[in-house]
Amino acid sequence: NTKRFVGQTAIITGAGSGIGKASAIKLAQQGANVALFDLLNDRTTDTEQEINRIREGAARAFDVDTSNAERVEKAVLETVELFGGVDIVFANAGINGVLSPIEEMDFEDWQQTLRVNLNGTFLTLKYTIPHLKKNGGSVIITSSINGNRTFSSFGMSAYSTSKAGQVAFTKMAALELARYKIRVNVICPGSISTNIDQSTEKTEELKDIIIPVQFPEGSQPLADGPGDSRQVADLVSFLASKEASHITGAEIIIDGAESLL
Ligand code: NAD
Predict the structure, then answer these.
(1) Among candidate residues 229, 198, 259, the one with its CA nearest the CA of residue 92
(2) Which fold has domain 9-252?
């Protein structure tokens, strides 16, 4: 398994941090060239440098807001020009966004969460599918256990809606793309230690809807605390590989049984 992706190219969105970064490192270690799509910031350029220290030329960072159609289209074309094609797509960029009671939520805040998490996923697939169709490939989408449950996720109506939308979208894409040997799967992590809290804004009104729960958010029977991004990267690598050749349209929970509490 150590060099399972030699000669392959992966596009990874949200690759400058957390789950995307860990997955980019993992895929590059296993031989893939990786296109890092993220908002241009120090974390993204640091990730690019870190991977290029593993293997010179393996990574290129692209300044892409995944909710911007033109930027996604352009960066995909630049990736194909640089690396010669696309084999693996990890549509992972996401934000928690503004957490607020529904009646207090600004329409613009609602839309921003859906733009990044849902439109961004759509645009990432829209512009990579023509390239994946050439040789088949693997698409992995990051949803969340919030995609089908709401335990202790107060104020996350927009986030949970976007994450549920990603699950439905995955299933439609898997059906539509099976004829091209493109597999599409969605992963649903529980709490993972990343920088996602930096993308969270809590409104003052949120405290009114928080009710006491038996288990604190992030409790996982399998571990003392949240999971690690590298554990998610192992799953991403498996789903991207030939070992997952009969898996498509699957919704895979990776949460240490958090969602069973
Ligand atoms: P993170 O904040 O560490 O990383 C997310 C990355 O996405 C950041 O580098 C950020 O700059 C980038 N990003 C944000 N908006 C973007 C945009 N418009 N265009 C391009 N890039 C953008 O968070 P993470 O936890 O690694 O999150 C990755 C995915 O995992 C998200 O979809 C998130 O919803 C999901 N997820 C995370 C957890 C968790 O507990 N951390 C749990 C379930 C699901």
Answers:
(1) 229
(2) Rossmann fold (3.40.50)
